[in-house]
Amino acid sequence: MPKHPLAFRGIMSGTARCVNARRPLTHLLELGERGLAVKVTRQCSIEGCPDLVRTRGWCSSHYYHWQKYGDPLAGRPSQEERFWAKVSKKGPIPKHCPGIGECWIWTAACYPSGYGMFYLNGRLTGAHVASWILAHSPVPRGLHICHHCDNHLCVRPDHLFIGTRSDNMRDMHSKGRGGGRGACGERNGHAKLTGDQVLAIRHRFDAGERGVALATEFGITQNIVSRVVTGASWRHVGGPIRSLDHPRRAWRTRKETV
Fold first, then answer.
1. Is the model's pTM score more than 0.70?
2. Do the Cβ atoms of 25 and 18 come closer than 8 Å?
3. Which residue, 65, 94, 112, 118, is most buried by CB atoms nearer than 10 A?
4. Is pLDDT larger for residue 159 or for residue 175?
5. Nearest to residue 54, comparing CAs of 76, 77, 21, 29?
6. How confident is the model at residue 36 (pLDDT cuts 50, 70, 90)?
7. Is 105 in a helix, a strand, or coil?
8. 3-state DSSP assignment of residue 125
9. CA distance 188 to 178
10. What is the pLDDT of residues 81-98, one digit of tens each?
11. DSSP per residue over 177-226, as a string?
12. How large a percentage of the chain has pLDDT more than 90?
């Protein structure tokens, strides 16, 4: 049985395969009247679409919509649909204000700071900021979006409020969060020690133990031990405090007495 004239290229009449599979298929090769291959362009099978076929009888645009949304005629979702599809409304209830209800948690990408990120109007912004803009209005210049619930991942609109940076700092300090006077000692999230450990370090150092041994035992640096025993930090905690001109003198004084 004679082979088809195009069999050596794997192409049969009425069907076509691109020789280079990486390039989109925009035409068919069929046999003309004299048995020669003729290029026949095809349009997208979607009614009214003038673009050429890519695959499955659709153009690139309709094929992309079928891949992404399961329907070649599906339109691009709105910003609100994209945003709320990434939110879980079964978050925790804030302990300090349970009356405001559950947090709505952002489940997509986040900044290193812990806040969610979202592309809104072609610009990357915080998820909580995007939630405020979608629910209310754009944020005026110089103002910030703050949380009543103190949950960075929460994007529930009624858990947010707008204010200046000073308003945000006052709200943080009033809740005992952040650094400085608003959160000292164990209330500070960056604290390496507890009040009891600070007292133990001061008493043991005053009794003659070396700062190097104390630093190793408590898993801190010698500089932290020095600041503790001299009162440079944890001054609100009692215990013996060495009044030295410079913290480093504590180590020299200890070596001389040993």
1. no
2. yes
3. 118
4. 159
5. 21
6. low
7. strand
8. strand
9. 6
10. 889 999 999 999 988 888
11. -SSGGGS-GGGSTT--S-HHHHHHHHHHHHTT--HHHHHHHHT--HHHHH
12. 30
